[in-house]
């Protein structure tokens, strides 16, 4: 086994009761750990209280406790950033009709060293719609692991759960929409969706109209089918504790979540309906 000793001198400052580490040192350490294959397992958000570029105060945990879903995109800003930050913005905007006011998109400068006017102009130039813009180091992307421009996280629920955490070209609009849907409709994080005790499986997937669900439950089961806008489009209750068939033929072609709830557990999986 190899051991690596990292010698650093770290200067800290206190602002709004939060210790802000030197960004360049953390980036070096993060890069080394990533190269060595260390994973990032944090599942809950880090709180902040700060003003946006319009002088409006935001406390992250208060907003999550208010049942809002917060999408944060950190940018340099740069031209390549615009594409993927735009995907996240479009994903958030797609819920404006079905869930008005519940999904917020925040654009943040990577190190808080660009002016608000510059960030606002950059967003406008790329037609990126925002609910708030921040140029403050208190919104620290290092709180969410590896850096890379842009960085997008989706946060939700009063559990302050991280539903999505990806960088640069790994960001897709579909995945961000899926994460937002989960944050709006479930009580557990994306990495916790499979409850192995329930052993939920569904086939065929993709399906042309019927889902065969198999599972392991000790109590009656409730199923919900949820579309990509977070809307419950179909429900079914059954006393069968091992399997059931769900007719989805009347639904439109697309992606859906099948959510299963027992008296004490919830799990879900994604399926595709083809017609």
CATH structural architecture of the largest domain: 3-Layer(aba) Sandwich
Rg, Å, rounded: 21 Å
Strand coverage percent? 25-35%
Spans where pLDDT lies below 50 across 5 or more residues: 1-41, 187-196
Task: Write up this protein.
This protein has 275 residues and is of the alpha+beta class. 21% of the residues lie in helices and 31% in strands. It folds into 2 domains: 41-190, Glutaredoxin; 201-273, Immunoglobulin-like (Sandwich). The chain has 5 helices and 16 strands. Helix 3 (79-93) packs parallel to helix 5. The longest helix has 15 residues, at 79-93. The model is unreliable at 1-41 and 187-196 (pLDDT under 50).
Notable features of this structure?
275 residues, 4-stranded antiparallel sheet, disordered N terminus, Immunoglobulin-like, 2 domains, alpha+beta, 5 helices, 31% strand, Glutaredoxin, 5-stranded mixed sheet
Q: What order do the helices and strands come in, and which of them pair?
A:
Elements: E1 13-15, E2 18-20, H1 23-35, E3 49-51, E4 57-59, H2 60-65, E5 69-75, H3 79-93, E6 103-109, H4 116-125, E7 132-134, E8 151-156, E9 161-167, H5 173-185, E10 201-203, E11 210-214, E12 221-227, E13 232-238, E14 243-247, E15 254-261, E16 266-273
Parallel strand pairs: 5-6, 6-7
Antiparallel strand pairs: 1-2, 3-4, 5-8, 8-9, 10-11, 11-14, 12-13, 12-15, 15-16
Helix pairs in contact: 3-5
